[in-house]
Fold this protein.
Amino acid sequence: MEFRCFCDNKGCGKEMRPTVDKTTMVAYCAECGKAVNSISVFMRRQMVSHDQVRRDEKKKLPWAVKCSGCNKEGPPELSKDIVVAGHPITQTLICSFCGKELTALSKPFAEMIKVNLKAMRRADGG
Ligand SMILES: [Zn+2]
Ligand SMILES: [Zn+2]
């Protein structure tokens, strides 16, 4: 049986299938990836027993890319905001493992990832 619930995080609130981290017993939203605290510990144990557990999050994301620098595969990160003379400079995608800029991505793919990362950032309230 699959357990579904609504995310209690501000800016998300979606119905989704949460997963539990077996080690920490923290439940995570499948949509925004943040901890969902409204799920009772009892329910979390149920989820673990039904194998509704959190896998390696980095591999789960659909936009994982392989870094040409360190050869690891994972979701890229946005570089820090750079502001030059009051104008924000376009952020680049960097490898989440070694921090090297990912230059081998096609432009539409890179843009798609950026949009997603920015949306996640907004969901974090920052
Ligand atoms: Zn959520
Ligand atoms: Zn790398």
Q: What stands out?
A: Residues 33 and 109 are 21 Å apart (CA to CA).
